[in-house]
Design a protein that fits this description.
There is one protein chain. This protein has a two-stranded parallel ribbon. Strands 2-3 form a two-stranded parallel sheet. It starts with 22 loop residues before the first helix and ends in an 11-residue tail after the last helix. The longest helix is centred in the N-terminal third of the chain and has 15 residues, at 23-37. The chain has eleven helices and four strands, in the order αααααββααααββαα. It folds into two domains: 16-54, no CATH class; 57-210, Alpha-Beta Complex (Nitrile Hydratase, Chain A). By secondary structure, it is mostly helical. The chain has helices spanning 23-37, 43-55, 58-70, 72-80, 82-88, 121-124, 129-132, 134-142, 144-150, 187-191, 196-200; strands at 98-102, 107-112, 160-165, 171-175. It is globular.
Length: 211
């Protein structure tokens, strides 16, 4: 179909092919090809697994945390074996272990992956860009209180801050403290207070006034 107007191609959304592959991209592609070549899984099975991981959202983790707030026995099971407890409510967290860690009046937990961006994707979805940044990965270990303050989270001096380093073999999920003023809330309503960032530990759960 002909047309008599011109297109200005000076501003456009660059394609991934416009940039050279990074070392990690080359390594990822090579590993994927090797897995298929060795018959560990088929290309279709690999694609399905990637799609499954990409489909996960923080709402899954929020549902799990909300139940720990209303059911102390369930919380104990989550702290002991997160995968097994999650399966009780129909959540499959995959094969990589996830350890739940609870924020209390005396301890505030925060999660980082100093090596790359290991993250409990099967429970709370894809990691945010800041979690993968070099600045967060290095500073969260060296100056966690300062980093938390930049997220708007002030931790009193009498509260211990514990930093947990995720690995390819073990991921972490923070159980944020239940906000005051929610004594009569049900699980579904409580889940609305639990955010991705609160399950990483950089912020507390939202207060009832924020909903």
């Amino acid at each position: 179909m002909s047309h008599d107007h011109t297109h200005d191609h000076t501003d456009y959304q660059p394609d991934i092919e416009d940039f050279p592959f990074t070392d990690r991209m080359v390594m990822t592609q090579a590993i994927a090809e090797l897995i298929v070549e060795k018959g560990i899984c088929t290309a279709d099975e690999l694609r399905q697994q990637i799609e499954l991981m990409d489909s996960k959202e923080p709402a899954l983790g929020a549902r799990l945390v909300a139940k720990t707030w209303v059911d102390p026995e369930f919380k104990s099971r989550v702290l002991e074996d997160c995968a097994k407890a999650a399966a009780e409510i129909g959540i499959d967290i995959g094969d990589i272990p996830i350890k739940a860690i609870e924020n209390t009046e005396d301890v505030h937990n925060v999660v980082v992956c100093t090596l790359c961006s290991c993250y409990p994707r099967m429970l709370i979805g894809l990691p945010p860009d800041w979690y993968k940044s070099r600045a967060y990965r290095s500073r969260a270990v060296k100056e966690p209180r300062k980093v938390l303050e930049e997220f708007g989270t002030h931790i009193p001096d009498n509260v211990e801050v514990r930093v947990h380093d995720s690995t390819a073999d073990l991921r972490y999920l923070v159980l944020p403290a239940r906000p005051d003023g929610t004594a009569d809330w049900d699980e579904r309503k409580l889940a609305q207070l639990i955010t991705r960032d609160s399950m990483v530990g950089v912020t507390p759960a939202k207060s009832p006034d924020d909903t």
